[in-house]
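Fig. S4 source data, part A: sequence.
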Amino acid sequence: VHKKYNFKLDSSAFKRSMEMRFGWSHDNSIPWLISSTSWTPDENFDKLLEALDILKKDKIRLRIIITGKG
């Protein structure tokens, strides 16, 4: 239970919702990366993009969700 807001975090329900929304197959072997951003200049995603290039070259699959207003 989240202490501040008094609700239970259910990552499996979130994952099922995203899989259905985006048509992703249910595959627990694919890691998830979730990040929020306001897409302002002070938030530097260069390191993330560099890491994604490395993962792509190594053919490592990853599910990425980036949220925020922009």
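Fig. S4 source data, part B ends here. The radius of gyration is 15 Å.
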